Amino acid sequence: RLWPTLHLDPLNSKDAKSLISAECSSANVKLTKEQEKKLERHCRSATTCNALYVTLLGKTIACVGSTGNIDETLQQCCQCQDTVSLYRLVLRSIQESLQSDKEKGLLREILCVISVSHNGVSESELMELYPELSSAVLASLIHSLHKMCLLTYGCGLLKFQHLQAWEMVRLEYMEEGENVISAYRQKLVEYFTMQLSRDRVTWRSADELPWLFQQQGDKQKLRKCLLNLFVSQNLYKRGHFAELLSYWQLVGKDKSSMAAEYFDSLKEYEKSCEGEESMICLADLYETLGRFLKDLGLLSQAVAPLQRSLEIRETALDPDHPRVAQSLHQLAGVYVQWKKFGNAEQLYKQALEISENAYGAEHPRVARELDALATLYQKQNKYEQAEQLRKKSFKIRQKAARRKGSLCGFALLRQRALQLEELTLGKDTPDNARTLNELGVLYYLQNNLETAELFLKRSLEMRERVLGPDHPDCAQSLNNLAALYNEKKHYDRAEELYEKALDIRRRALAPDHPSLAYTVKHLAVLYKKMGKLDKAVPLYELAVEIRQKSFGPKHPSVATALVNLAVLYCQMKKQIEALPLYERALKIYEDSFGHMHPRVGETLKNLAVLSYEGGDFEKAAELYKRAMEIKEAETLLIGGKAASRHSSSGDTFSLKSALSPNILLEHGQR
């Protein structure tokens, strides 16, 4: 906690008496004058007049008052001269109320396990740790312990209400010393390690295991646990930066050594990554490492993992995907801190372009990129440009705030209720069709594909009736349904719907419209997945044309589209057609990123393969040597050793299987 310890003043006799009387009254227990005077005299010393002691005293008397002997209990309480000894009396009274030795044993186990944990233990974890513990017994025990101020809940975990309760449990149950504590710690270690072995890296495992190894002083196991990339990612993303750093300090690693170990571990993990889902996960891990190193001030070492994250996302998703913009933004942030403003400006502009295409020109994500660019210009003393971008960003945020604020208005809620009523009654309007589409998208994102299909079908039917079958909105519904069928592996139905959507969009939209590019891309990938390579070629060619019109012929996005087309030709054994595409992509990458960029290296590697297959071994060797020099330079940035097995230049033929991009359903424009 960032705030200092809070010290409560001792209670005076009047306040102590009032507090005890209130506790007794809540249990319908009435004290005699003599008993009140005895309590008043007892609560005068420094250790018996604090608020916690008096509250606990009142609860103890109230608890036994209706069934037991108050004078006897009062006599026992008066022998307790501090809060810990009073807690001990409370615990023993709870033990005496239990019916069997089994329940008393379980009470001990529960309190001991909680006492050796880092942040507490959940009810479900207790029942897994002790299978003989029934939910009824657990509920009864927790009720008694909570009622008497021993345990409380925090974030769904059972923990001690006060430090004195924790101290009492250590004195009562763990007098034998470190051996008993170690046994309970080991029980928790085995439990959370078993979760890790099932590939279940929950926030609980990440919180407890490193801390338990630290308490055991086992540096080897702590290091191994920290090199489980998902454990460290979980801790870092939830803000446990200082804790993560302290673990590494205990292991005896400085910042640079830690960075190198993480990078080596990631490279090793990358060898086992196959398929789109695992590659996206890998990109997240690289990004987390890059951000962590940036926070540590290791800017030169942060570049390599952030760059790798960007390359993987461009390959596994798409160069125009919003998460690519996120990678560009993160990498640009490092270059800003590193005072490499030219590199940062180019990356921020790319992120801005992608965000505008993905979200629209008035989205808060666009405002974020504008603000970042404005700050960059300000650092370069380009005040006029910075001011223009800030004004633009401010207008976007202002509109977003108005939209957000109006959602709270009663008038809008009433209007929304009327819209839902019309929707239920089946009134055909473009707005209702759009709402049905949005509901379909929402259910799709929740992985409820059956319900999503119903809403998307209704949206399509309504749009065809109201707007006509050739309207662009119908293409949106067709596109979303096709994406859903693709997800369900109904490829023939997806193909039919994508083709209809493409036909409508080709006739209705501009040649460089983002929606047209979206359908072209996904239908091309579907054809490729289905083995219909001849049908995929014209679409990959169209994707190149669209990107040239959208970004200009020398943009890196065009180079990636060229590489994807080249890969397709290579799969069709058309190396002659692939060669000029790779060469043009290489020139764009070199002009955009410089001669030592990883994407240049990957393209050189692919050209080397083509030259080798064409029998030009000398040229192949030269190209491969250049590619390896770039790879070695990239590796030296972080101290890693393992070379990447996956291409960074797009959908390259070095991959074992083509990676299809994530399916993003389209929302309607409001």
UniProtKB/TrEMBL annotation:
Domain Nephrocystin-3 TPR-repeats region: from-to ranges: 185-423
Family, similarity comment: Belongs to the kinesin light chain family.
Function, in words: Kinesin is a microtubule-associated force-producing protein that play a role in organelle transport.
Provenance organism: Zapornia atra (Henderson crake)
Keyword set, alphabetical order: Cell projection, Cilium, Coiled coil, Cytoplasm, Cytoskeleton, Microtubule, Motor protein, Repeat, TPR repeat, Wnt signaling pathway
Annotated GO CC locations: ciliary base; ciliary inversin compartment; kinesin complex; microtubule
Cell location: Cell projection, Cilium; Cytoplasm, Cytoskeleton
Name of the featured protein: Kinesin light chain
Start-end of each TPR repeat: 325-358, 433-466, 475-508, 517-550, 559-592, 601-634
Principal subcellular localization: other
Underlying gene: Nphp3_0
